Amino acid sequence: MAPVRPTRSRTTRPRRALALVLFLPLVAALGACGYGSRADDGDGEPAPVAAGAEPLSTDQVRLGYFANVTHATPLVGLEKGLIAKELGGTRIKRQVFNAGPAAIEALNAGSIDMSWIGPSPSINGYVRSHGENLRIVAGATSGGASLVVNPDRVRDRNDLEGKRIATPQLGNTQDVALLNYLSGHGYRVDAQTGAGDVKVIRQDNKEIPNSFRRGDLDGAWVPEPTAAKLVSSGGKVLLDERELWPGGRFVTTNLIVSQSFLEEHPDVVEAVLRGSVRTNAWINQHPDQAKATLNSALGEQTGKPLPDEVLDQAFAQVEILDDPLAGTLRDQAEHAVEAGLLDEADLSGIYDLTLLNTVLREEGRATVDDAGLGVG
Hints:
D-Maltodextrin-Binding Protein, domain 2, seven-stranded mixed β-sheet, 39% helix, NrtA/CpmA_ABC-bd_dom, cell inner membrane, ATPase-coupled transmembrane transporter activity
């Protein structure tokens, strides 16, 4: 059977409404306990700025992100000072998260103003607030997710029955992708419990490589660098998720902002976007230097940089870009509907790409579209 390929929704699919059902209690529970988050500046104080620099419309902006290769934009941009440079005297306070729900809860609670985050938490947060808490204002990365298996136990997709396959979290981007893939190949799995023809295990990215090495897992659908770590432990890439998407592109990380912060401080949001666009350009123009900078930042956040072979493989799987690939966000939401994690609701207005397109025009770059899901 050929792999299931999403239809290119920008041109062939009608707009479809989507809403969260099963995943909301988990989002609330994880977010309420602050799971997976910490301030990376020790005492949580904002980083200093150059003497004499004038702040924009606010003295500080609080930025969230993850210590993943798929979050290369904030990791490199903050490490190199490329984002801070655009903010003048407005200081940056950084917060690192391990889980999307924690970042969404921090945004809802007013603890952060903007965050790089995956598409599924963005959708979940938007729907949960009835479209009133966030906007997606830019893209960051595409790709960087794979199904890696123990080749002694899984030779091809027909060997998945009865196997234990991990994802980082119930309802996260890779979890939805795995559930959609299994359903498309005739496997039945209860989306909430993970029980079924294939046992879907939800486990933190940090723990998955250890479980895989112990033999507790037969495989995992995970982002980078976790996928590369599994390969370095003897795993085999059964499926690179890029194979399932037209043109090999799908949104992995985008940049969100609270609607109140966007309304009150558009100059700050525009400055962060300019720093993001210039960071992405620098990464693509200087890949070797970017890898070194990225690994330095990962080492600071996790306590240990990646081995060269893991870093090289992980970095090669990720495309750095400004386009949020809005059509693929809609497809991913529809996959969650089909998996039973989402019911019907309205995603219109989730994007506001006005400031991003302003920056792109200033940089002499092509503008991007919102696939009909932008503010009216």
